[in-house]
Amino acid sequence: MAMVCNLCRTLTPRIEFQLLAPATALLCLCDAHQLENAVLNLCINARDAMPRGGRLRIEVSEVKIAAQQATAVLPEGDYAQIRVTDTGLGMPGSVLQRAFDPFFTTKPRGAGTGLGLSMVQGFARQSAGEAQIDSVVGQGTTVSLLLPVYQGVLPAVVPGTGVAANDAGSSSQGAVLVVDDEAGIRDHVGEALQDIGYLVTEAATATEALRLLPELATLRLLITDIGLPGGIGGDELASLAMQKCPGLKVLFISGFSENSVPTAAFEEGRVHWLPKPFAMSELKTAIDQLVGEA
Ligand SMILES: Nc1ncnc2c1ncn2[C@@H]1O[C@H](COP(=O)(O)OP(=O)(O)OP(=O)(O)O)[C@@H](O)[C@H]1O
Ligand SMILES: [Mg+2]
Fold first, then answer.
1. Strands 199-203 and 175-179
2. What are the pLDDT digits (tens) for 149-162?
3. Pairing with 158, which of 31, 172, 174, 286 sits 20 to 30 Å away (CA)?
4. pLDDT tens, position by position, 103-129
């Protein structure tokens, strides 16, 4: 969270930043990077809604959902509430209704993917919570993230990973998304990855992959063909997914040359390229190398 606050302070000199948090930490069981990313997305939305400046406030508190307010998504209980409030433009009803929809954006082409809020909601739901919006046109917007307070005993944590010791030895290496229009390749690659402990999701097109992104809160690796049907190529898919999931690694499996992929990503070690056709042993080596790099 320190990273998010530092970033918020540098948003723009015209935006005043406030952080209100309780003295004692609230404990939630969720992916720390995803949480940071969700709050960051909300802060960027807040900044974009205040082109002429204003006030951005992040407020953390503990709230109780009583039996009368409980819903299927938010059962009765104690929740950590993170509210990101801006004094910006606000949302008219037509925007509010669709704000969480994947690909819904009012920003100019190229400025927004419309995936920000849908990923925030995807993360909240996967963490047994919910994101909610209150907005008044001309006054501002508050987006609240409600996450259940963890009541159990704090497990021992593997240093530096943020992963509970019990989970570290379990079979899951994290989620991987395999995108190829050839079902045979998807199945082959998917099976190989399952064997080495990944949770595999498959998609035939980039559009389908982008729709699945919000559900894949712990996505670690994207394996995609470059030439894909339907207008969005694997290279564009990769750059959108890397924007949305910081830390995501990408393996291109393609007959295309390496030149069709932005070199910056290669240099940062986030992207590798494996020419088709390849043996399963080559795939496994490429994944080990890519995921092994910091
Ligand atoms: N704080 C806010 N104030 C006013 N409108 C907002 C706010 N947050 C979101 N919106 C509206 O909801 C839409 C969807 O937001 P979302 O974060 O999903 O996508 P985006 O910000 O347009 O694109 P991206 O997050 O990919 O950059 C925005 O385009 C904007 O119209
Ligand atoms: Mg956004």
1. parallel
2. 987 766 554 443 44
3. 286
4. 899 998 878 889 999 999 999 999 999
Q: 31 is in which domain, residue-wise? A: 2-148
List, for the chain, all residue ranges whose pLDDT scores fall below the cut of 50.
Answer: 157-171
55 and 171 in a single domain? The answer is no
> What residues flank ligand 1, with Cβ below 6 Å?
41, 45-46, 49, 86, 88-91, 95, 99, 104-107, 112-118, 141
Task: With residue 94 as reference, give the H or E element that holds it.
Answer: helix 93-98
Q: Which of 45, 47, 56 to mutate to test the pocket of ligand 1 (most atoms within 8 A of CB)?
A: 45
Domain boundary among 119, 148, 177: 148
- Alpha-carbon distance of 109 to 118, in angstroms, equals 18
Distance CA 273, CA 126 (A): 31
Distances (CA, A) of 184 to 61, 129, 250, 275: 50, 37, 20, 16
Residues 169 and 91 occupy one common structural domain: no
